[in-house]
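Lipid-A-disaccharide synthase (Xiashengella succiniciproducens), 379 aa
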Amino acid sequence: MKYYIIAGEASGDLHAANLMKALKKHDPMAHFRYWGGDKMQAEGGQLVRHYRQTAYMGVFEVLANLGKIARNFKFCRADIVKYDPDVVILVDYAGFNLRVARYAKQLGYKVYYYIAPKIWAWNTGRVRKIKKYVDKVFSIMPFESEFYAKYNVPVLYSGSPLMDAIENRPHKGEGFNSFVKRNGLSNKPIIALLAGSRLQEISRILPDMLAMEAYFPDYQFVIAGAPSFTIDDYSTYLNGHESVSVVFGETYALVECAHAAMVTSGTATLETALLRCPQVVCYKMWGGGFTNFMAKNVIMKVPYISLVNLIMNREVVKELFQSTFSRESLKNELSLLCYDEQYRTRILEGYEELALIVGKAGSSDRTAGEIWQTLNDTK
C-alpha cells in the first residue's frame, strides 16, 4: 500500500516514524511519502518537506508566514494527487492538516488522523470538520476518545505512542555516572532545559531558563538539543553561560538522569513525567497581556496547558504561562523542585498515577494493525 503521511514537528516525526516501522511489519510492501523529519526519513520512503520548513508557532508567526503556508498547501495538494496514495495519514499539526483532510476527502482518498489535534483544548468547533473529512481518528489519550465519541466521530484509542518511544529509548536505565562520563559532563546534579523544538520557542524561553544558572551554582545546566537544531542555534544564547552544555540526540537519557527540569509546554511535559523527573512547565508567546487574556478567556477550553495536568485533571506540576511566567516565579518553583523533598515526592506520586492511566507500550503496533486491517477491509 501507499501511505502519504504529514507530520509538522519533532514529536510528530518521532511518532510517525514508529508508526511507519510498525506498518512495515504488517505490510511488507508499504511505500511512504511524507512531510516530517529525520526519524521518518530513517524509515525509508520519500521526504517531501522537513518540518524545519513548515513549523510556525503562535498567531503572529502564522500571520507573518501566510504566504509560505499557502504555497506549501498548494504544493501538498498537487503532490497527493501525483502520488495517489491508498490513505492519507495526518499526524497532529491541526492548522495545516485539517485543510489537507478536507481536500483529500473531497478527492475520494481515505483519511486517517493519528495523534488527533487538541481541539478539545483550543477550538471545539473543529470537531465538525473532523467528522466530515476524517474517516477514523486514532487517539492517544483516553479522554480524547470520550470527546470524539460524544460527537459520533469514529475513534479508536490505542494507547500513547510515547510509551513505545520511552520503552525503546537508547541507554535505557544506564544511570547518572555513565551518562555524565559519556557526555563529558561534571558530577554535579543536573537541571535539564527542554526549551522547545522551534526557533521561536527557544528565543522566548531559553534566556529565562539560562538566567536560573546564577541561582543554582550547585547544579549543572544541560540543554536538550532539539532534533532539527545544531549547536549554532544555541550559541547566541550561551554567551556568558559557557558552563552550560548542550546534548543532542539523548533527551530521554538526559531527563532520566536529571534532578529537575524546566520544560516548554508540549509533548515534552508528558515525556518528562513518564521518565519520573520533577519539572516546571513554561510557556510564553508574543503579545504579553493581550495574549494572556485571549488564551484564558477566549481560546482555551481547558484549565491546564500541560498534558500531565490535563490527563490527571488536577495540578501535578506547576505551569508558568504567559503572565505567570517570570524569572522570579521560575526561580521560586525551581527551588522547590531542587530542595523541597516533600514537594518532589508529591510530584513523583502523581507521576505514578499518570503512568497507570497512560498504559503500557505497544500503541504504534496496535494502531498500525488497525490501519492495515481497515484498509484491507475497504479494498
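The chain has two domains: 2-160+361-377, 169-358. Residues 169-358 form a domain with the Rossmann fold fold (CATH 3.40.50.2000). ok done for today
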